[in-house]
Amino acid sequence: MSISEFRWNKKRKHYSYSHKDKGSKRVNILISSKDRMIEKKNKKGERTLMNIPLYRHPNPNKKGQFYVIPKNYVDDVASFDDKVYNWKWDKNDKRSIKRIKKMKRRK
Questions:
Q1: 10: helix, coil or strand?
Q2: How far apart (Å, rounded) are the C-alpha atoms in residues 12 and 6?
């Protein structure tokens, strides 16, 4: 089932855009202020992901450069804050968000 809401992800400590509901789990995309993310692997070392720049933050009051982490995260419903933010994606950002939503989950 599809949903579309912005909430604070307490587990990952980022604002997130939840776009799919899977029972007690939610598939979400994280919003960050950093331009790259370092994934730590145990035996293989580290992997750097370049974050996708946003034209504008979904919150109209925020100024500055923000990014979207190009990965779908699956988190439990309890790891999200109760407050739902009434934000919207900018028209220029919708295409990149749609591409991230269609990406397969990496292992």
A1: coil
A2: 14
